[in-house]
């Protein structure tokens, strides 16, 4: 599978859903199923990383009192 760096979160999620659907049908040869499973795991890790980073960004934007604070997006990394 090609690199996921250029795809959006939504595109990667759609790809993962397609992999899951193929595997759930059960009509995929074993070797292909293993390759698809491995690709799905990689996509899942990428998606989780994106969600974790988004959560950290949101947490930085809201202070302890629940007030939105000024946030410089250059500090997101």
Automatic annotation (TrEMBL):
Its main location: cytoplasm. It is found in: Cytoplasm. The keyword Transferase does not apply. GO terms for molecular function: exodeoxyribonuclease VII activity. The keyword RNA-binding does not apply. It holds the Pfam family Exonuc_VII_S. One of its GO terms (cellular component) is exodeoxyribonuclease VII complex. Keywords: Coiled coil, Cytoplasm, Exonuclease, Hydrolase, Nuclease. Its EC number is 3.1.11.6. One of its GO terms (biological process) is DNA catabolic process. It catalyses: Exonucleolytic cleavage in either 5'- to 3'- or 3'- to 5'-direction to yield nucleoside 5'-phosphates. Residues 6-64 form a coiled coil. It is an enzyme of class 3 (hydrolase). HAMAP family: Exonuc_7_S (MF_00337). Heterooligomer composed of large and small subunits. PANTHER family: EXODEOXYRIBONUCLEASE 7 SMALL SUBUNIT. Bidirectionally degrades single-stranded DNA into large acid-insoluble oligonucleotides, which are then degraded further into small acid-soluble oligonucleotides. Belongs to the XseB family. This is Exodeoxyribonuclease 7 small subunit.
């Amino acid at each position: 599978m090609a690199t996921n760096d250029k795809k959006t979160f939504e595109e990667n999620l759609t790809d993962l859903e397609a992999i899951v659907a193929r595997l759930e049908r059960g009509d995929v040869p074993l070797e292909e199923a293993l390759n698809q499973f491995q690709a799905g795991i990689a996509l899942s890790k990428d998606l989780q990383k994106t969600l974790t980073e988004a959560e950290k960004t949101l947490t930085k934007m809201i202070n302890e009192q629940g007030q939105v604070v000024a946030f410089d997006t250059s500090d997101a990394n």
